Amino acid sequence: MRLTLLGTDSQAGRCPTLYATDRDTYVIQGWTVTDPEALGDLQNVLEGETFVEVPKALLRFAEGDRGKVEH
Q: Does 71 fall in a domain?
């Protein structure tokens, strides 16, 4: 799998960051979800899946040109 940086709200190289993959999916770098109530609300969790939290504003990069990188 190859990643293309779409955009970041990061400061000093820290997360969150959004990437597009060559498999027509996204990889999101964010904060690990550890809150027990939030984890309890998740449904149909498969082995090997994980969850990260990112600001809603980060998803604006998913709407743009996949080849364009913004910082």
A: no
CA distance 8 to 28: 10
In a domain, 69, yes or no: no
- What is d(CA 54, CA 38) in angstroms, rounded to the nearest whole number? 14
**The pTM is what?**
0.73
Residue 37 lies in a domain: yes
The letter for the amino acid at 45 is V
Q: For the beta carbon of residue 6, count every other beta carbon within 10 angstroms.
A: 24
The total domain count for the chain is 1
pLDDT tens-digit series, residues 40-70: 999 999 999 999 988 888 888 888 655 555 5
